[in-house]
Amino acid sequence: MPYVPTKEILGDAYAKVYGVGAFNINNLEFLQAVIGAGVEESSPVLIEVSEGAVKYAGYGQVQRGADTLYAMVKRYADTVKIPVALHLDHGKDFKYIVACIKAGFGSVMIDASALPYEENLKETLRIVEIAHAVGVSVEAELGTLKGIEDNVEAAESILVDPAQAEDFVKRTRVDFLAPAIGTSHGAFKFKGEARLDIRRLKKVKELTGIPLVLHGASSVPEEMVDLANRYGGKIEGAKGVPFQVLKECVEAGINKVNTDTDLRITFLGVLRKALTDKPSEIDPRKLFGPAVESVKEVVKARMRVLGSSGRA
């Protein structure tokens, strides 16, 4: 199936009440794992890249990075029978957002959530006008998620105001909204039990009537954390969002579920093991291969939990 607009995938998820995982990639290996999982699960796939991934892919040149990632994702998409879309995650810098729009991304995120409300609205509207003019969808965020992940950093969480969310969507005409309901970025989301404001989420869904996005949604699989730590990692106290909570969020209105940390921990944990078990191996493909397969299994499990398996 050809590369498709993000809005097509999330429109179906909205109409049929299920979630689609949006999986962050940085290189070919992660793309192979995510696309492979989608094919095996007959699931639509949302590929996300951060500004850091764009810079990395272009070896410091932003437009080259955006063009390279788009070309790589589109080539893969054109060879499979599932819908695949490409999204810029947490776009903060105007030049990155515009580069991704020019490259052919299906959607971009403008993350001005750290700004005062009216400034967030103004910046979001500016991107919406540019993106919509060429058929690209836009995601925005209201409220603030604490934690650190790539170019995202905040010390405290500020939960979304549902009435403000309604006003924001009406005035900006944004296509997707990420409301802060209690998740965090990174591997250390909760000190105790995961507590998300599901009632607040339901109200936002009722008032906005558009696909909603859950950021900071990695589950941080304990077995992969243990594996990484066993082979030299130092990931202590990591705790994510349980699968049951993710299901509740989807039932309450979430249609796009961002996942990054789970993939990183899995890949690096398995890679650490391979490096230890095969100290004389000099072919990186033989070291990366097991990591790719493990990431694929993590993605497949997420697709089943969110309800996107069998939807393609």
Question: Which key phrases capture this entry?
Answer:
alpha/beta, eight-stranded parallel beta sheet, 12 helices, 10 strands, about 15% strand
Explain this structure.
With 312 residues, the protein is α/β, with parallel strands linked by helices. The protein is 50% helix and 15% strand. It is built from 12 helices and 10 strands. The protein has helices spanning 6-16, 28-41, 51-57, 62-77, 94-103, 117-132, 162-172, 198-208, 222-230, 243-252, 261-277, 284-306; strands at 20-24, 45-49, 84-91, 107-110, 137-142, 147-149, 152-154, 176-179, 212-214, 254-259. It has an 8-stranded parallel sheet with strand order 8-5-4-3-2-1-10-9, sandwiched between helices. Strands 6-7 form a two-stranded antiparallel ribbon. Helix 2 packs across helix 12 (284-306) and helix 11 packs antiparallel against helix 12 (284-306). The protein is globular. The protein starts with 5 loop residues before the first helix and ends in a 6-residue tail after the last helix. Mean pLDDT is 91; it is low at 152-156 and 185-192.
Topology at a glance:
Layout lengths: L5 H11 L3 E5 L3 H14 L3 E5 L1 H7 L4 H16 L6 E8 L2 H10 L3 E4 L6 H16 L4 E6 L4 E3 L2 E3 L7 H11 L3 E4 L18 H11 L3 E3 L7 H9 L12 H10 L1 E6 L1 H17 L6 H23 L6
Parallel strand pairs: 1-2, 1-10, 2-3, 3-4, 4-5, 5-8, 9-10
Antiparallel strand pairs: 6-7
Helix pairs in contact: 2-12, 3-4, 4-5, 7-8, 9-11, 11-12
pLDDT under 50 segments (min length 5)?
Answer: 152-156, 185-192
Overall mean confidence score, pLDDT: 91
Label the overall shape: globular
Alpha carbon gyration radius: 18 Å
Whole-Å distance between the termini?
10 Å
Order of strands across the main sheet: 8-5-4-3-2-1-10-9
How would you classify the helix and strand content by structural class? alpha/beta
Q: Quick one: biggest sheet?
A: 8 strands, parallel
